[in-house]
Amino acid sequence: MGSPKQDVNVDMQLLSKQPSPTRNGETIVDENYDPHLHRNRPHPTTNFETLVHLLKGSLGTGILAMPQAFCNSGYVSGVINTILIGVLCTYCLHVLVQAQYALCKRHRVPILTYPISMKMALEEGPQCLRKYAPFSIIIVDGFMILYQLGICCVYIVFVATNIKQLVDVWYPLDVKIHCLILLVPLIGINMIRNLKILAPFSSLANVITFVGIGIILHYILDDIPPISEREMMADIGKFPLFFGTTLFALEAVGVVIALENNMKTPKSFGGAFGVLNVGMIIIVFLYAAMGFLGYLKYGNDALGSVTLNLPEGDWLSQSVRILFAIAIFISYALQCYVPVDIIWNVYLVDRYKDSSKKMVYEMLVRIVLVIVTFLLAVAIPRLGLFISLFGALCLSALGIAFPAIMEICVKWPDKLGPGKITLWKDIILIIFGIVGLVAGTYTSVRDIIYSFQ
Questions:
Q1: For residue 60, what are the contacts with CB-CB under 8 A and spacing of at least 6?
Q2: Beta bridge partners of 22
Q3: Domain tally for the chain?
Q4: Looking at residue 311, which CATH number applies to its domain?
Q5: CA distance 286 to 283
Q6: Which residue segment(s) compose the domain that 329 sits in?
Q7: pLDDT per residue as tens digits for the range 270-315
Q8: 0.85 cut: is pTM over it?
Q9: Residue 282 near residue 48, CB atoms below 8 Å
Q10: Alpha carbon distance 422, 27 (integer Å)
C-alpha cells in the first residue's frame, strides 16, 4: 500500500481525468465498469495470504485482554455478546467495503481511501449532511490517528507492565520508570522509515504471538476451577467496559480496507464464505474462547493482560512475558507508522517539500509522536481501561457509525429499499455507535479517575 498522501493524490487525479458522466445533473453509473479489474497493485495477495494477514492483524493485546473483559460481563453474557459484537463488526465492515465499491464504480476509479470515500459520499448524500463533507477527511483521519496512538499507548503500558513483573523479583520499580526506560528504544525503532526493514521483525513477532498464546492456554487449562464459581451475568453498569474492550479487540477497520484493496481477487473478500467472514469467524471463536477460559481460570482477578496472571516464579511463564514484550515492542513501530504517515504525508510534507531540512522535520514528527504516547502511558498506566477507552472512543465511530452514514449517502435517495429499510437500519447503527462511544468513553474515563483515588 502507498502512503495516505499518495493514495489521496491518486484518487483525485483519477477523478479529474475520468469525470463521472451526468444526465440532467444526475450521475450516470457505468454498469460495465468494474473497479476490481482496474486495480494495479505491484504485489497483490492471494485469498489465503489475505486471510493470514487478517488473523495476524487481530491477534495482539486485544485477545490477551478478553479474560478481564469477561469480568465485566459474566461468562454467558460474555460469550453471547462477543459473538454479537463480532457479527456487528463484520456486518459494518461489509457495509463499508460495499459502499466504497459503489463509489469507485460510480466515479470510475479503481480504488479510494476511507477519508476520500467519506467525503465523496457526504457530497452525494442528503442535503443536511453535505455541509460536513469538507471536514470529513480531517474527522476520519483524526479518529484514525487517535486510535493508532491509543494502540501505541496500550503497547507501551503492556511492555512496561510485563517487564516490571519480570524484574520486580530482583529490583522493584514503578511501572512509570519502566515506561521511561523504554522511551529511547521506542524512539529508535520509530526512526525506521521503510516498512520492508520491519517486515522480518514483524514476521518474528507473529510467530512469537502464536507460540505465546499456546503457552498461555496451557496455563489456563491446567486445574481450571468449576464454572459455578463464576458469574453468568455481571452488573450492567460494567457492560460499557466490556463493549469497549471487545470492540478494540475485534474491530480492524484500517487493516480490512488495506487488505481488500491489495487482493488479487477482491471479489473473494466478501460473500457468505469470503475471506472476511471466514477470518472473523475464526477470530471471534478465538476471542470468545480466550475470554471464557481465562475468566473461568482467574475470575475477577483477571488483569488487563492475561500474561500478568501467570505464575511469577515459573521460567516458562517468565519466557512468555519476555516473548510478548518483544513482539509488542516490535509492533509499536508498525502501529506508529500509520499516524506518522497520515500527519506527515497528508498534512505537513507539502509545507516542507522544498526545505533542506525536510528529513529533520519528519524525524521530529516521529519523535514527538513517541513522546506523546509515552506521556499518555505514564499519566494513565491502566492497561485494561486504556484498551476499553480507545475501543469505545474511536472504533464506535470508525467501525460502526461512519460506515452506516456512508451507506445512507451512497444509496440516497432512491436505493434505500422498500419502506427505506436501509435508512432506518443505518440510523439504528449510528445511534448504537454514538451510544457506545459516549457510554464506553464515559465509563472508561470514570474508572480511570477512580483508579487514582
A1: 209, 328, 331
A2: 27
A3: 1
A4: 1.20.1740
A5: 5
A6: 4-451
A7: 878 888 889 889 889 989 999 999 999 998 888 888 888 888 778 8
A8: no
A9: no
A10: 21
